[in-house]
Amino acid sequence: MSGAERRDQVLGIAAVEFANHGLHGASVEAVARAAGITQAYVFRLFGTKKALFLELVGAAFDRFSDGMSQAAEGAAGLDALAMMGARYYESLADRTTLLLQLQGFAACGDGEVRDLVRSRLARMWDTVAGGTGVDPVTVKSFLAFGMLLNNVAALDVDEVAQPWATGVRTRIRPGLFEHITTDTNQ
């Protein structure tokens, strides 16, 4: 296996480990064992456990932003926003990427993690704002709803047969938030 292939293998294994256990709960030893290499080799590839985590979390955010950007290519306004929303929703099916994003938020007590997550959230904002041309209140509403979708997906709400879960799964009709995008709310 080439060095690049080994690195990709370790990233894939580590993504699942960090998604499930977070920065402080993940075990580099478990990653190394699953990859059939030593811990020392993992550290040689990535430097530190935190550096590996940061790379994975950054990539998870980038997959969401890149996907939305690609989905809305050539469109503008609410049409672009709808395309981005559909892609975002589809992206939630990648549970590892979703959980890595949430683990990034959870580890924001660490300054380096917070700086990375802040920069990736800024990129996500810029992707939506720049790719649609909509006003800041609409971008904020879109991203806020996205965060709700993240939590709902992480909780596997589709598996819950209770009234609150049915309510959370309710589809939102276009135009529902029209009242918050007026000049008075900007």
TrEMBL record:
Q: Which species expresses this protein natively?
A: Actinophytocola oryzae
* Record-given protein name: TetR family transcriptional regulator
> In what residue span(s) does the HTH tetR-type domain sit?
4-64
DNA-binding region positions on the chain: 27-46
Keywords, ordered alphabetically: DNA-binding
Q: Which residues cross the membrane?
A: none
UniProt keyword annotation of Protease present = no
Q: Which GO terms describe its molecular function?
A: DNA-binding transcription factor activity; transcription cis-regulatory region binding
InterPro entries per UniProt: Homeodomain-like_sf, HTH-type_TetR-like_transc_reg, HTH_TetR
